[in-house]
Amino acid sequence: MSTQYFDTVVIGAGHNALVCAAYLARSGQKVAIVERRSTVGGACVSEELVDGYQFSTASLVTSLFQQSIIEDLDLASHGLSILPRAPSVTSLLPDGSHLMLGRDLVSDAAEIAKFSRRDARRYAEYGDTMHRLWGEVKSLFTGPSREPVASNPEQLRSILHRAVNMPDSDLRNLFSVMFDSARNHLDSWFESEAVKAPLAIDGITGVAAGPSAPGTAYLMLYHQAGSTEQGRPAWGHVRGGMGGLTTALRHSAESCGATVLTGALVTEIVVDDGKAAGIRLEDGTIVRAHSVVSGADPRRTVSLLTDESGLPSAYRHAVAQLDFRGIAAKLHLALDRLPPIRGFSQEEAIAEPYRGTLLIAPTLDYLDAAYEDARAGRPSSSPHIECTTPTVLDPSLAPPGKHLMSMYIQYTPYDLAEGSWSDTGPDFADTVLKVVEDHLPGLTASVTDRVFLAPPDLERSLGLTGGNLYHSTMSPADLFFSRPVHGYADYTTPIRNLYLCGSGTRPGGGVFGVPGRNAAKLLIDSSSA
Known about the structure:
36% of the residues lie in helices and 18% in strands. It contains 18 helices and 18 strands.
């Protein structure tokens, strides 16, 4: 048994943990990152799931990750390259028509006008309004905070001052987007289902709810947090797959002296006299540190604390009550060729829709019905499907002349009413392929290999409790200053010197980086106080 000493030890090497470690190392701290898997990245990882094909196993594209973090950590010089996608999404409709969005406002308006001239006129105003509303609230939800807003008079005054000075229309829209359903919010703006359905996707991604559920409108606003050099949200493929981002984060941290230990399973957070003092590994190694930061989800973190740690039972109980039910699956395909897309020539398909996401979610009713299947314990018979084909922009991910396609699928409940995913998974994957084949004729024949990952598979392989990509649900009751639990939205825990930095903390999930940055700034400020 050996003992090592650090200023801070970070549990896990997901993107938020790596962001936290890189900031701490840049501040001069001696930092260790300890990861149970043989590679860094967590759910933001590239893996050779099929010989010769590098898939982004869980997270598929980047949008939320902050430009300010890219610049602070000098990630471009450490190999990060983001390939912009235009269009961002092409919604494929049952009658063979399509709606293509994300090229530019003029093109978007022309596409929308195919379905509604009124909606085309309102689309730019809608985008401006959502972006402006996020600007009003982003500091409240993404900035570091040492106490809940309800007990912070300065923050309360700031919120009230902003509300008083908002135009009436913005104030109405803010209340709608903060508390209403995606359906109701979009109904107030648009008339065409073909327009509303793709816009609603941001409100339900990774969430056990349909677009009619209250609170889903806020998640549409949440996705405005993505930033580019122009300050507007935009989706992109990371060169080399999503692991290209976390590899750059690792190199940034290591360039400042951080130590990365992979293949090292943490079995206990060591607590001395009520303070976190390090970690114990499966092989008996103790890594001593002044502070411990966990990038794991709150439940996994609590499981590393013994009964003798002094963790209050109320906190343990609150974490146990969090909802970790995963609702999404992945289907990864190795392709010997790109199938055609109905309504496009092959040249057109490669030039535009294949560069972005192909979406199958034609109406809000379709999405609500898909969720109702899952609520009854069944995988959706008509699922919401998002297909990405990154090899169109990054051929290095597959053998020469070949392609890969990754599908994000909702809704797929963690617990099935009948049977198990090991039995149901292959048939459900066939169902997904049949749904997509209606729009991409010849897809099934082009598949040379496939890997299906249901929520239990994501839990087992990536350490995502319940297979939940967000480290716990993103319902209104589990957001804002109640994330992860009430009274601890500032990345602290009841154990002194033990902090959280993962997606289960404020503001929430996605490849964001903000939880990791905020936790690091809290530690840096505390050490200099």
